[in-house]
Description:
The protein is of the alpha+beta class and 152 residues long. It has one domain: Gcn5-related N-acetyltransferase (GNAT) (Aminopeptidase, 3-Layer(aba) Sandwich). A hairpin with a 2-residue loop joins strand 2 and strand 3. The two termini are 28 Å apart.
Amino acid sequence: MKAEKARIADIAQIQKLVNHFAAKGEMLPRALSELYENVRDFYVVRSGEDVIGCAALHVFWSDLAEIRALAVVDEMQDQGVGAVIIESCVDEARKLGINTIFCLTYKPDFFERFGFRQVDKKELPHKIWGECLKCPKFPDCDEVALVYPLEK
């Protein structure tokens, strides 16, 4: 099993997967336009032509990136799909020279298995809050913030 960069043809499946979990209140929904604009951020794991997992590494600044929209089809959870995607995102961040990765999630235990640690959202740089203004949950965000410092 391996993660690879998403293709334009994957976007509809990515949206269906992400919005499946968003409908259950487990993540934020994503519009097709947003996904197309950010296709280069996404990694996917496929089974044949089916996307069974996805996540994006979104660069915010010279030293900061976010892992977002991590989703794995229900029947493939706990099979290592999410781990493969996280590892790919971390590897790319390291290659880009990024110092810190963060995420906002309802599943902090999953990220903590990879060395992410919980922080108060106030510790996150203000530059990310520009995106939070677009969120339907702003200013009452109930996601957990985690960070992962990368070694040089």
